[in-house]
Amino acid sequence: MKAIMFKNRFNDEHFVCDDIRVTENIDGVEYIVVHRPNEHRPFKMRRDALEKINAPVTQRNKSTTLRT
Length: 68
Description:
3-stranded antiparallel sheet; mainly beta
């Protein structure tokens, strides 16, 4: 499945969701697994706090990330 870019409605932070079908309902609230661009640590966020944006998602490997 193609990765989708989301934006947090409250602070405009961007997140990437690799598979929108992976969800979990906790106390009636739907959560999806996301990660920050250029990071690989996944975490869950409320789906209603995110809005889909039409931006291309570029996946980078750790070896191609520039470090300063």
